């Protein structure tokens, strides 16, 4: 054997040892788990969730079906020369205000349920009398809506026309020629065909009104709504709505008709349109906010929750929004926290 053979053999042995050691280290690396960085680890869900309290309005999106009527107008109650007219498109005319003069005498807008159609003297009776008295009282006049014309009714009508005491004591009747009927307590001006200085006939159009809204009703009711009086929000306008989803008050209809949402429909006379609205509780209620997973045994609008102090509570489920449930404790002290994954074997009923 040559002298170099032992050196070569030991070199090979050394290489083999190094390779074996490396393999062993790799094996240890594969067996021993490497800790996961905390930033990548999935946190364990906390089963105790704090309870917060919020005002709950149960706001729902809905569609309002609206119907328009024929074009309306405010007409001259008598003939003469138009000596003044306060009229500009987009302005409003309110009941009880003077918007024109004919032959120098005021013409007062008046929104009565029945338009004045006859001269009313002391002792006259009827639904038209009651309608007049109701509007005079709404305008702040000291009169009772008893359906019988008395001195108080005559003086009140004179006061709305601007007649001052003691002249009101000399009045003997309420004349329809002093008042121009308007269909709501406040109307929006559409156009102004009246010409100051021109002669007018009784019934001539002084002010044109926009397309009137004659009815409005929710097309469908959102499901599982919280109980309570409701309002509709059309843009920035809030309107009370009846239990069957209808809006019948003329002033409320006029307010809806003045919104951008309605005007954007381009509704013409005698048409049906639909506009988006928000339907919500008129008076929001205080509610507890809990995760939906905290509820079990949900039945007929109620459910069970498990408080952090281990009390099983019966709650009324008001509604849900954005992954949160709104509830109210049926009886007892409200919890400060609840379990988000409670055992469901216990009952609260």
Helices and strands in order, then pairings?
Blueprint (H helix, E strand, L loop, with lengths): L4 H27 L16 E3 L1 E5 L3 E9 L4 E3 L4 E6 L6 E3 L3 E5 L2 E6 L9 E2 L5 H12 L12 H10 L12 E2 L4 E3 L4 E3 L10 E2 L4 E4 L4 E6 L11 E5 L2 E5 L4 E2 L2 H8 L2 H4 L8 E10 L3 E6 L5 E4 L2 E5 L5 E10 L2 E6 L7 E3 L10
Parallel strand pairs: 8-11
Antiparallel strand pairs: 1-25, 2-20, 3-15, 3-19, 4-14, 5-7, 5-13, 6-12, 7-8, 9-10, 15-18, 16-17, 16-19, 20-24, 21-22, 22-23, 23-24
Compact description:
By secondary structure, the chain is α+β, with helices and mostly antiparallel strands.
Q: What does this molecule look like?
A:
The chain is an alpha+beta fold and 349 residues long. The protein has five helices and 25 strands. It has helices spanning 5-31, 127-138, 151-160, 250-257, 260-263; strands spanning 48-50, 52-56, 60-68, 73-75, 80-85, 92-94, 98-102, 105-110, 120-121, 173-174, 179-181, 186-188, 199-200, 205-208, 213-218, 230-234, 237-241, 246-247, 272-281, 285-290, 296-299, 302-306, 312-321, 324-329, 337-339. The strands form seven sheets. Strands 2-20-24-23-22-21 form a six-stranded antiparallel beta sheet, with no helix packed on it. A six-stranded antiparallel beta sheet has the order 17-16-19-3-15-18, with helices on one face. The longest helix is centred in the first third of the chain and has 27 residues, at 5-31. It is elongated, with a radius of gyration of 39 Å. The protein starts with a helix and ends in a 10-residue tail after the last strand.
